[in-house]
Amino acid sequence: MTTPVRVALLGAGTVGAAVARRLVERADLYAARVGSPLELVGVAVRDTSRVRDGVDPALLVQDAEALVDQADVVVEVMGGLDRARELIERGIRNGAQVVTANKQLLAHHGPALEALAAEAGVGLDYEAAVMAAIPVVAVVRDSLAGDVVTSISGIVNGSTNFVLDLVARKGVPFEEAVRLAGELGFLEADPTEDLEGLDAAAKIVLLARAAWGAPLTLADVQRRGITGLTDEDFRTASANGKVIKLVASAWTSGAQDAPRVELAVRPVALPQDDPLAQAREGSNVLIVEAESAGTLRLHGAGAGGDETASAVLGDLVRAARRVTRA
Ligand SMILES: NC(=O)c1ccc[n+]([C@@H]2O[C@H](COP(=O)([O-])OP(=O)(O)OC[C@H]3O[C@@H](n4cnc5c(N)ncnc54)[C@H](OP(=O)(O)O)[C@@H]3O)[C@@H](O)[C@H]2O)c1
After folding, report:
1. Are 103 and 199 a contacting pair, CB within 8 Å?
2. Alpha-carbon distance 57 to 38, whole Å?
3. pLDDT on residue 302
4. Ligand 1 pocket member 309 (CB < 6 A)
5. Terminal C-alpha separation, the chain
6. What are the Cα distances from residue 193, in Å, to 4, 197, 287?
7. How confident is the model at residue 258 (pLDDT cuts 50, 70, 90)?
């Protein structure tokens, strides 16, 4: 009988509950892929009295430290900065593998956490932090490790794309589109992170670090969100056959042997037939240019519980394999 891999789940919200459900529903599949069963030892939340669809209430705990201390793999899907960082650091120091979907934490503290993980000899995986189910981190960091990435550009924030798409294709006035996006759950109660381009900035920093290994921070991003746009901007773009999108981009400049990485997030008026202009509603698109591979295009859902859980669980399987093979 193989020893189970013990998994601590931090968070049972949109993403965490979807991860917990899949771990139960597809237990046999994961056991076969890992070579040992994955045992969900507990789920840390703030409110243990609240029922969460498909999550065994007996697994809910408030003492996240005690949970982390039992784990071979810590899966952090609680969000936020300080608490998530403390718990991830605790897991790493214990020798646990870590999986996280927390883009803001990684944008702020990723290099320090990666250094700590390297020192402890454990993995820190974060595919879900950028564009949810679309496997972009692995593509720029691993699949293209034998090539030279020259640029990355994309629609990486589904919420702002939903707003801009409503204006461009349905003719909804900009302020009304923002309000509708909020009502339909495409924007958080505080939509600043999306509308001001902070979410997109965190994602392009993570992608650029993965592609070029450069120690980039949020301060390196030339950032402009969509709040300054007016209906006049949309009318002008449309009259010129263009469509406004919030584009996140990263590219190299300067000497080939010591390239500089430039990062930007800003609204851009694109020709209608531009591949980035094709992103509809809340979808995401990423275009990666590499010296030998040429142009690669990745397209899909960049958010959602099940979609993000797909990426979290992929990382979890990889992390659990490291545990069983250690
Ligand atoms: N939602 C998406 O589509 C998506 C996509 C990509 C990445 N992500 C990332 O995934 C992470 C989770 O997102 P989400 O949408 O699932 O968030 P969420 O729905 O707000 O869920 C957060 C969960 O974490 C728990 N939690 C928060 N702070 C806690 C604390 N201090 N101690 C214990 N538990 C705590 C909450 O407990 P209670 O339930 O008791 O409040 C809740 O279960 C975030 O980093 C987010 O950026 C999300």
Report:
1. yes
2. 18
3. 87
4. no
5. 17
6. 39, 6, 23
7. confident
101 lines ligand 1 (CB under 6 A): yes
Look at residue 56 and tell me whether its pLDDT is greater than 90. Answer: yes
For residue 12, the ligand 1 atom closest to its alpha carbon is 43
DSSP assignments along 131-161, one per residue: TTTS-HHHIIIIITTTS-EEEEEEE--HHHH
> CA 152, CA 240: separation in Å to the nearest integer?
26
203 is catalytic: yes
The pLDDT tens digits for 147-173 are 999 999 999 999 999 999 999 999 999
Give the residue ranges of the annotated binding site. 11-16, 103, 188
Residue 35's H or E segment, with its range, is none
Tokens standing for 49? 């009295």
**CA-103 nearest atom, ligand 1:** 47
Most ligand 1 atoms within 8 A of CB, residue of 14, 74, 199 to mutate: 14
Domains by residue range for the chain, with CATH: 5-133+306-325 (3.40.50.720), 136-301 (3.30.360.10)
Q: 98-142, pLDDT tens digit by residue?
A: 999 999 999 999 999 999 999 999 999 999 999 999 999 999 999
31: exposed, middle or buried (Cβ count in 10 Å: 0-12, 13-18, 19+):
middle
